[in-house]
Write a structure and sequence with these properties.
Number of strands of chain C: 2
Order of helices and strands of chain A: HHHHHHHHHHHH
Strand content of chain C: under 5%
Strand content of chain A: under 5%
Radius of gyration of chain A: 22 Å
Strand order of the largest sheet of chain C: 1-2
Oligomer: heterotrimer
Structural class of chain A: mainly alpha
Number of helices of chain C: 15
Chains: A mainly alpha (273), B alpha/beta (375), C mainly alpha (315)
Distance between the termini of chain A: 22 Å
Shape of chain C: flat
Helix content of chain A: over 70%
């Protein structure tokens, strides 16, 4: 089975990725569609795309979404990493408490959590707005990131960290030189997941944003009142194309150096049996 | 569609565009304002009214649910006022009311408020500001019926829910709900219904001869049973892109909003609209001023501005909604105003029942509707 | 961070660091105990603090609501302490909805696992720089709008849509595709939307595993399938469990995708919750529904985690 698996595996992986992008291809195509009802190809027009591109509101919302997503991802990581490390070393009962609070945050339907927070904020007269939205996002994002960090930590023994400590390394150095490099893939993956959820979030942002926060998904949902027209497709597609380009550039510039030096470190720590 | 409205003067628009837009609307508004001014010369001097209008108005509504040129046009007339549109992205007017109840001071006035939200907004302490109708003389452009049905503010748009069929894909010519139900088995799998509880269940009630806003449990159950009866023949129950299947021909009959069908007819002329004999439901929406707002004068001024035929036509052209101002007809683009589906025929309007709040019976309705969805 | 040394270097609790404070013995030992507690549990403060303040507190409000009744108009709560909301959930309408949602969740988790595992494995076998690249390639589609994406899937699968045309042209199909507004369409949409949540945790666990493992296993005579089943799969268990949790739990509350791609013909548990909160404004009943779901799924997940613990012992 594994020999079978080896042969078409790259083909399989690429097939899955291509299928993943097919709907996006349609979105991009429809962004240039003259037919407002999108029942067929009505001819090419760039007016939706140029409108979205020139709209200050779209740009502003894009930035708002981005800022909130980055902040939410950063804070979620800052919460999840210590929690994961703590969970490794305590009694099963304590760990179960951590797990329960983590799963509860994932399972509670977003509308419930958002409304609960809204009522909570309003009763305490706390201001709604960007900070409130970030707080709301972190509630569920930190749970997702915790699960991912824990999955990574579960594949590590504490052997190397104990050895480093026994050799006289202080705790922060142990973390910096031993633990964190192990965790790096999970940190990157967790950050990506948190960013993505935050970026695409509608419900929490709507409820906790008050009258001062408008994110791009909020705008898109509101515009799609009776139909998903080319205008909406243009915004949705543009979003993705911009982030794709930005990331391609970042990778080219910064990617090589960072992963290169880490490569050596992670190699040393691989499980060997 | 061009509905993306910038939040106030946007860096994206060039100065030339902004001035051009504002200029166009100001020209139109200025001309009409002159007429209005003549009529109300007995009131306080115009300059005093303009002076009290200043500040930022937070307008909570669906994004882009306004004429393309309206914000800029109004701001040009009143440079001290800025309108900030706050996007509501939910799908029901009750959801809007919930948000306003939780945080009233965040909003100055509301758009696309349906009748279903009225009790929530008016319950003590009432969130609805009393409007000085003397400051909104253009309300006379709206027929009395709509004004009576929408007492808490200015009605702006409505949508009747009837059904449509493809005359090239079926020989029958149904004219009532009962006929639609009767034809269902023959065209099983090619019928689309609307995912809107008030409209769909309301229409089922009307088919049975009851009020579309009934709170009588036995009537509600009867309507639910009618829906359960037709469900096996339904292809889908849609809330968006409702007219797409019938336009493409993959469905033969569909329940839908009048303006949605009108738009589809532009592409597929074989679609025939029916305002059924038994009657049909309609939603009615409008603008409402929030009681806690400190800018009531500015709000009233904007509402009046919006009701000027030129600006109202801009609103209709931008959103494609069904309209309720006959005076605006000549100014609205032909593809919308020429369509008989949207015309003000008295006999059709006589059969229309506006969906209202169901009060305590809401729970009964939603349970019945959930049972329909679950089947 | 100085305090943390206790937990990192001494996995056995109870061994105190030497005290250097000049205070009296009793105060010293109390400080020690506080210090030790802080040392051992300081790391958990951000997580528990945030959860307590911004999750538990609002949740308590809602749970209290669930025992009350609401005035539909003013949205004011009547503190009634009634269990009527919970007893209502016993009706078949709600029982069936939760069964349907859980069924969907199981199917989604299983499918995502089958589809996602080979992909995660392949990515983890790439050179490190490429790994990051492929992860990004995987996640970037999800930086477009969820609504636009899901409707695009619906359009692709629709009768008269691109997929049907392609199948007609290649001769693989004659007649209508008939996938639209069906459970299959919903399944495709769910697997699509949740795939990264399965692949990413899997990758995180698989990346740790040494390719030499498989090499040695087969050198010792094990056949490929056995190698996979006995060696790779158990070692990637933490990733599998994490992926199943990240997909399975949210999928049980999923209702938007079934509404859009399923043609609105099926009622999911999430529909009920959302309706109660947004349409009816009946927060108490909605809260009761949400609390029930949460209790059930959390218990289930904790039990599943127990199995994961034993799987982790192998590592």
């Amino acid at each position: 089975m594994r020999a079978l698996r080896r042969v078409p595996l790259p083909a399989y992986a690429l097939l899955v990725i291509v299928i993943l992008y097919l709907p996006l291809v349609l979105v991009v195509i429809n962004a240039f569609n003259k037919d407002v009802l999108l029942t067929h190809w009505g001819g090419f027009t760039s007016r939706w795309v140029s409108q979205a591109w020139n709209s200050g509101r779209v740009r502003h919302d894009f930035l708002t979404s981005g800022i909130i997503a980055v902040a939410s991802a950063a804070i979620s990581l800052a919460i999840a990493i210590p929690a994961g490390l703590w969970g490794r070393r305590v009694s099963p009962r304590a760990r179960r408490v951590l797990d329960a609070t983590t799963y509860m945050r994932i399972v509670l339907p977003e509308i419930v959590a958002a409304l609960g927070l809204l009522i909570f904020f309003r009763r305490l007269n706390l201001p709604l707005g960007t900070a409130a939205v970030i707080i709301g996002h972190v509630v569920f994002n930190s749970a997702y990131v915790t699960v991912i960090i824990q999955a990574r930590l579960a594949t590590l023994t504490t052997v190397l960290e104990d050895a480093a400590a026994d050799l006289g390394a202080r705790p922060w150095r142990v973390f910096q030189r031993v633990t964190f490099p192990f965790l790096l893939p999970a940190v990157l993956v967790g950050g990506m997941v948190a960013f993505t959820f935050s970026f695409d979030d509608v419900i929490t942002s709507s409820f906790l944003g008050g009258n001062s926060v408008e994110t791009l998904p909020m705008l898109i949902f509101g515009l799609a009142r009776f139909r998903v027209d080319p205008e909406v497709n243009a915004i949705g597609a543009g979003l993705m194309v911009i982030t794709l380009t930005a990331l391609a550039l970042t990778l080219v510039v910064a990617g090589g150096r960072v992963s290169g030096s880490l490569l050596l470190r992670t190699r040393d720590g691989r499980a060997s049996g | 569609m061009d509905r993306i409205q910038d939040l106030g003067p946007a860096p994206g628009l060039t100065r030339r565009q902004l001035v051009a837009r504002g200029g166009y609307a100001a020209l139109a508004a200025g001309g009409l304002a002159g007429l209005v001014g003549c009529g109300s010369s007995a009131k306080a001097p115009a300059s005093a009214q303009v002076e009290s209008i200043a500040g930022t108005l937070n307008y909570f509504t669906y994004p882009g649910w306004i004429g393309k040129h309206e914000y800029a046009g109004f701001e040009k007339l009143h440079p001290q006022v800025k309108i900030k549109e706050i996007a509501y992205n939910g799908s029901s007017t009750r959801g809007l009311a919930v948000l306003v109840r939780e945080n009233p001071s965040a909003y100055d006035f509301l758009g696309a408020v349906g009748l279903a939200a009225v009790p929530t907004l008016t319950a003590a302490p009432s969130l609805v500001a009393k409007l000085d109708w003397a400051k909104i003389p253009n309300i006379a452009n709206i027929p009395q019926r709509f004004r009576t049905e929408f007492p808490i503010g200015v009605p702006t748009d409505y949508g009747k829910v009837g059904f449509a069929y493809r005359k090239d894909l079926m020989p029958e010519r149904p004219t009532s709900w009962a006929e639609l139900w009767a034809l269902a088995p023959r065209y099983s799998g090619k019928i689309i219904f609307l995912d809107a509880m008030e409209d769909t269940m309301g229409n089922a009630l009307k088919m049975l001869g009851y009020s579309g806003n009934s709170t009588v449990p036995s009537q509600i159950t009867a309507a639910k049973n009618k829906l359960l009866e037709i469900k096996p023949h339904l292809q889908a129950i849609l809330s968006m892109d409702v007219a797409k299947p019938i336009t493409k021909g993959t469905a033969v009959m569909t329940m839908d909003y009048d303006f949605d069908i009108a738009a589809a007819q532009a592409q597929e002329p074989n679609i025939v609209w029916v305002a059924p004999k038994e009657g049909l439901m309609a939603y009615l929406e409008g603008q409402v001023a929030v009681a806690t707002s400190k800018h009531l004068a500015a709000i009233e001024s904007f509402m009046n501005f919006n009701l000027e035929p030129q600006n109202y036509a801009d609103f209709v052209d931008t959103t494609g909604t069904a309209y309720l101002m006959p005076a605006a007809s000549p100014l609205i683009k032909k593809s919308i105003s020429d369509n008989p589906v949207l015309a003000f025929t008295p006999d059709v309007l006589a059969r229309v029942e506006f969906e209202k709040s169901l009060g305590a019976a809401t729970g009964l309705w939603t349970t019945a509707w959930s049972e329909f969805q679950a089947a | 961070m100085e305090r943390v040394s206790g937990s990192l270097t001494r996995p056995h609790p109870g061994a105190p660091p030497p005290s250097r404070t000049p205070l009296g013995p009793r105060r010293q030992s109390r400080l020690k105990r506080v210090g030790r507690f802080g040392a051992r549990h300081g790391l958990s403060v951000p997580a528990f603090g945030w959860t307590a303040l911004f999750f538990i507190a609002p949740l308590v409000i809602l749970v209290v609501y669930s025992f009350g009744q609401i005035n539909f108009f003013t949205l004011q709560l009547h503190w009634g302490w009634t269990t009527e909301n919970y007893s209502q959930i016993g009706q078949s309408l709600y029982r069936d909805a939760i069964a349907r949602s859980l069924g969907l969740s199981f199917a989604a988790t299983g499918s995502c696992l089958v589809v996602g595992y080979p992909l995660a494995y392949w990515i983890s076998r790439q050179p490190p720089r490429r790994q990051r690249l492929w992860l990004l390639v995987l996640i970037i589609p999800f930086w477009s709008s969820f609504l636009v994406r899901t409707y695009a899937i619906g359009s692709l699968l629709a009768n008269g849509g691109p997929l049907e045309s392609a199948l007609h042209t290649t001769g693989l199909l004659s007649g209508p595709l008939n996938v639209q507004y069906s459970s299959l369409a919903v399944g495709i949409g769910i697997v699509y939307s949740y795939l990264p949540l399965m692949v990413l945790p899997l990758y995180v666990a698989l990346e740790r595993l040494d390719p030499l493992l498989d090499q040695s296993a087969s050198d010792l005579g094990a056949r490929p399938w056995r190698v996979f089943w006995r060696v790779r799969l158990p070692l990637s268990a933490p990733g599998i469990i994490a992926g199943c949790i990240l997909v399975g739990i949210p999928a049980s509350g999923e209702y938007v995708i079934p509404t859009i791609l399923g043609g609105g013909k099926t009622l999911m548990y999430g529909n009920l919750v959302s309706t109660q909160f947004l349409e009816v404004g009946n927060f108490p009943f909605g809260s009761a529904l949400a609390v029930t779901l949460m209790a059930g799924v959390t218990v289930f997940a904790l039990v599943a985690r127990r199995f994961s613990r034993s799987a982790e012992e192998i590592t």
